[in-house]
Write a structure and sequence with these properties.
Elements lengths: L2 E6 L3 H11 L4 E6 L2 H11 L3 E5 L7 H9 L9 E5 L4 H9 L4 E4 L4 H8 L14 H6 L2 E4 L2 E5 L6 H20 L4 E5 L8 H16 L4 E5 L1 H8 L9 E3 L1 H7 L1
Parallel strand pairs: 1-2, 1-3, 3-4, 4-5, 7-8, 8-9, 9-10
Antiparallel strand pairs: 6-7
Length: 247
């Protein structure tokens, strides 16, 4: 299901961050630079989620929210408020507005998606290149293990989609049934800089969620990886079965 997301902010930079955060997902993005424009867009497209800045010229976020709440059609639209102030009084004021959540600036796209996933069921985009669909073909559930099949020939768009998907999967694993992750490099013939960067990024997502993991590779690649300082703390084994035992 495609979700309509409206970002309302007088900063083009912030709007870009919001749009980029939702780009891997099946979402149709709309934008406005103040509350007046935001209301007009909301009336026209009836968004499923509004990411709304609190402080804007012409009409600020509070005024726009009050206008929305005055209309029965828009009362139930969930809002994530963006604010530059983190003080207790400001937080209380935001909560009283009836917003679903808020984020203090500056923020990262990952933080926004984490909040949005509590409101919407986000699905990876199945676009013309098929990254979203292909990613799912590279993750296999085997009992208590999630096996991620990696290659040294992934495109950058695919790598980005994989990172987004895995972060979402790990978050759900943390909230539900605890699983372990095996990064399977069986088809990789040589270690490249881009592969190491991808692995480090994936490892960091597992570490952030306290999710145990190990790497499975053929003998040559395993030995090469064990010699890299960046991967010195990672369990690296020859074959998936050995990797399972290493966790």
């Amino acid at each position: 299901m495609t979700h309509k997301v409206l970002t309302v902010d007088d900063s083009k930079t912030i709007r870009t961050i919001v749009k980029k955060a939702f780009k891997p997902y099946d979402c149709e993005m709309f934008e406005a630079e103040n509350g007046v424009e935001g209301l007009a867009v909301a009336v026209k497209v009836q968004p499923d989620l509004i990411v709304l800045d609190l402080t804007m010229p012409v009409m600020n976020g509070l005024e726009m929210l009050e206008k929305l709440r005055d209309q029965q059609t828009f009362m139930a639209i969930p809002v994530i408020m963006l604010t530059a102030e983190s003080g207790r009084e400001n937080v209380i004021r935001i909560v009283k507005m009836g917003v679903k959540d808020y984020i203090v600036k500056p923020f990262k796209g990952e933080q926004l998606i984490e909040r949005a996933e509590k409101i919407l069921k986000l699905e990876l985009k199945k676009d013309g290149d098929g990254e979203g669909l292909e990613v799912m073909n590279h993750i296999v559930t085997d009992g208590e293990f999630e096996i991620v099949l990696l290659s040294d020939k992934f495109s950058k768009p695919f790598q980005s989609a994989l990172e987004e998907f895995l972060q979402k999967r790990i978050r759900r694993m943390k909230e539900g049934e605890r699983k372990k992750v095996i990064f399977d490099l069986s088809t990789v013939s040589a270690v490249s800089v881009s592969l190491v960067k991808l692995l480090i990024s994936l490892f960091s997502k597992c570490d952030a969620a306290s999710c145990p993991y190990a790497v499975a590779a053929n003998r040559g690649v395993a030995q090469e990886m064990k010699g890299l300082a960046e991967l010195s703390s990672v369990a690296i084994a020859e074959g998936v079965d050995a990797a399972k035992q290493a966790i």
